[in-house]
Amino acid sequence: MKKIVLLFLLCLNASVFVGVAQTKSPRQPRTSQPVQAGRWTIEKANAWYAKQPFLVGANFIPSTAVNELEMWQADTFDPQTIDRELGLAESLGMNIMRVFLHNIPYDTDKEGFLKRINEFLTIADKHHIKIMFVLFDSCWNDNPKAGKQPEPKTGVHNSGWLRCPGTQMLFDSRTWGKLEDYTKGIISAFANDSRVLVWDLFNEPSNSGYMDAVVPLLKKSFEWARAVNPSQPLTAGWWHDHPMSNEVMLNSSDIITFHNYVTPEKLEAQIKDLQATYKRPLICTEYMARKHKSTFEGCLPIFDKYKVGAINWGLVKGKTNTIYAWDEPLPGGEEPKLWFHDIFRPDGTPYQQQEVETIRKFTKAGK
After folding, report:
1. Is 251 helix (H, G, I), strand (E, B) or coil?
2. How many C-beta neighbours within 10 Å does residue 298 have?
3. What pLDDT is attached to residue 16?
4. Coiled coil: which residue ranges (predicted)?
5. CATH classification for the domain delimited by 2-24+54-363, as one of 3.40.50.720, 3.40.50.1010, 3.20.20.80, 2.40.30.30
6. Which of 99, 245, 278, 284 has a CA between 20 and 30 Å from the CA of residue 2?
């Protein structure tokens, strides 16, 4: 029976990600789950947020990395490209980057991994950029392995991105000791580091067909992080209507984060709903999919109006292939007329100059 259930979940992967990600809803679940002990009060969360500037940034991976492992493993860690591309972000006035970690570099090279994270934070700090680290992720490819990573599939969106952990580890709680060590080890190393702004514990946990099955690990991720008691807030973001995981995230997070890849009108409705319901700071940790009319020109005025942080997906066109849409691969590898994500070409020229000017307007870059 376990094998049948697992096979069913894996088969759901592609359809769940593409279908759900395009139909973000502003509706919120009822919150019947108990609030987790140690969670920041509303007053503390809002006092912390009042000290922050208007947070504008991107989900960042250097253009030379196909996935989290290629970004962080010693052989492919690329500080020169990171420095150059965070410089592009700084030129836009961006002040926050959301960055994915992975348990495998911690398992295989703990000291080296922590050293590279510190080097990354030093580069980001040079560019006046704070970091939101993501520890776990249910999206895209299963069975992550250390070592040389595959080349990107031509014209395919995020063809090399890896889940953290993979399905085998997710379904075997006997292995979670390593995940606990990873969570506590990473957070404790930077628990009082002002260069780290937020800990985002789990990206889209119910994705890849995991649904209810992910909830035990999701709960544990918050328990492990709370045990460290970092100075930074904890969060995990709403991304679609899955009541069990949403209730855990929304009742455990110090600040509320969410994803929205739809029209500005629906974005505004969701912001109003979340602010009225939770009365906590809001940061949108994924937005901007041009095909779905989620754009800088349409969304940044709304984020600014409601004082909601704005972190779009993608900075520089690269090996993740996120200029291609989730559901529209181009096997020939030709550049799509309308980029899905990303702002710059690898040489630093903007995809659309008007977008750059819009971002700078709201970040007050150069003023």
Report:
1. helix
2. 17
3. 38
4. none
5. 3.20.20.80
6. 245
